[in-house]
């Protein structure tokens, strides 16, 4: 391992950085064409894979097949050769993930079901320069030199070395337009152990994050009143148009436009939510050395409210509203952010088992019926105790207590959460 000046070890860190691209309409069309070609390439590759005998399913044969396809099919030529190679690489990785039981088998990509994306696998072709306080320039193959929003110092130009550089990028399109995601690699000294105190965090809907030391992190609605009204209006308009469509009739341009406007507003709300999450988790990771959260299984919490035919669910409308609130808070993403942000600052994240943290008294440890008097108020019914306080605060104190008594799991620092299929092998040997 390399040593830094201070004597601490150095570690390479790989992360992504996403920036908005400023493309003119002609460039947007070129990027769209490339993304469609990349998707078609994937679909052709998948069709070829399913058709040929198993012993011929090799990387070399697949490579030859896509080279031939690029010659035979005119519109595939808009896709840069490197990006076509990247499709091949991703496709093989998808099969590897399937064979290791980390994911389902790869499938065809539908025009409206998949995200539009083009890979730029080689960083040296990008030739990134900062040209203004807020803008950078980047070379995109077969699109040209374009501007992107500069929001973070990137290792480019004279600042780039063999260890600190941009190794590649990916163009991605969402409802708000084309973006570029840079792959950044840096070499940094390992962090000193975090000296901050431990804290327990309870997640909820009325109070998004309640801390065991009494602090809370809250947010308002993501969309303004006007935006909410507009979203509702658009949704009703889309529903109305859809209802009056005859069977087999194509979705009109006008309806597609309404769908795009709805997606734009929803993307705006999502972006504001993730901005709040980033700011909050950064502040928490700066302040505390150990963060303890509940080990929640969100998939169980948002189980379908309708139930089965034999056992129909109760309070279906309320439960689906609650599900929407649970999913809207995106706790899983908060935990992921905390994990890597704490690891970078020398802190740790611990997970405590969830049951009873909201019903148990954090002063005496007893669970007494009826102690949670309202949504916000907790009053202990144990005659010898009688502690009262905020219910979320009480839960957060319980979570911290579980950690202090050694009932919490400490997940490996900085390792991303891998979503796996059932009966899965871990991504790497532990
Ligand atoms: Zn008590």
Automatic annotation (TrEMBL):
Q: Which residues form the Cas12f1-like TNB domain?
A: 331-399
The Probable transposase IS891/IS1136/IS1341 domain is annotated at 183-303
Is DNA-binding found in the keyword set?
Answer: yes
Which residues are in coiled coils? none
Q: Which InterPro entries match?
A: Cas12f1-like_TNB, Transposase
State the UniProt keywords alphabetically: DNA recombination, DNA-binding, Transposition
Q: What domain of life is recorded for the organism?
A: Bacteria
What is stated as this protein's family in its record? Answer: In the C-terminal section; belongs to the transposase 35 family.
Q: Which NCBIfam families match?
A: guided_TnpB
Q: What name does this protein carry?
A: Transposase
Provide the species name.
Streptomyces umbrinus
């Amino acid at each position: 391992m390399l040593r830094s000046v201070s004597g601490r070890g150095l570690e390479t860190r790989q992360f992504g950085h996403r920036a908005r691209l400023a493309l003119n309409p002609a460039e947007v069309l070129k990027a769209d064409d490339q993304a469609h070609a990349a998707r078609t390439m994937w679909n052709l590759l998948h069709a070829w894979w399913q058709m040929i005998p198993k012993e011929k399913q090799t990387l070399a044969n697949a490579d030859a097949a896509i080279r031939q396809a690029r010659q035979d099919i005119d519109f595939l030529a808009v896709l840069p050769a490197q990006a076509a190679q990247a499709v091949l690489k991703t496709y093989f990785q998808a099969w590897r993930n399937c064979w290791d039981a980390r994911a389902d088998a790869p499938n065809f990509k539908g025009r409206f079901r998949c995200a539009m994306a083009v890979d730029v696998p080689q960083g040296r072709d990008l030739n990134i320069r900062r040209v203004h306080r807020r803008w950078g320039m980047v070379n995109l193959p077969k699109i040209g030199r374009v501007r992107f929003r500069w929001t973070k110092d990137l290792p480019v130009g004279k600042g780039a070395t063999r260890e600190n550089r941009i190794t590649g990028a990916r163009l991605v399109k969402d409802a708000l337009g084309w973006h570029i995601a840079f792959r950044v690699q840096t070499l940094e000294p390992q962090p000193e152990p975090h000296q901050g105190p431990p804290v327990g965090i309870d997640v909820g809907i009325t109070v998004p994050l309640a801390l065991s030391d009494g602090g809370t992190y809250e947010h308002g609605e993501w969309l303004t009143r006007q935006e909410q009204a507009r979203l509702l209006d658009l949704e009703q308009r889309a529903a109305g148009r859809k209802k009056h469509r005859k069977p087999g009739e194509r979705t009109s341009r006008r309806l597609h436009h309404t769908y795009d406007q709805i997606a734009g507003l929803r993307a705006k709300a999502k972006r504001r939510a993730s901005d709040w999450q980033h700011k909050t988790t950064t502040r928490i990771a700066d302040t505390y050395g150990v963060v303890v959260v509940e080990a929640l299984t969100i998939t169980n919490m948002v189980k379908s409210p309708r139930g089965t035919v034999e056992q129909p669910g109760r309070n279906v409308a309320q439960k689906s509203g609650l599900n929407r609130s649970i999913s809207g808070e995106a706790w899983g993403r908060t935990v992921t952010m905390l994990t890597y942000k704490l690891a970078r600052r020398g802190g740790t994240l611990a997970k405590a088992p969830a049951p009873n943290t909201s019903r148990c008294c954090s002063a005496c440890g007893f669970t007494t019926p009826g102690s949670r008097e309202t949504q916000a108020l907790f009053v202990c019914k144990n005659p010898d105790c009688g502690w009262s306080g905020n219910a979320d605060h009480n839960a957060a104190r319980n979570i911290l207590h579980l950690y202090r008594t050694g009932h919490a799991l400490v997940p490996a620092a900085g390792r991303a959460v891998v979503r796996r299929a059932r009966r899965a092998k871990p991504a790497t040997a532990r």
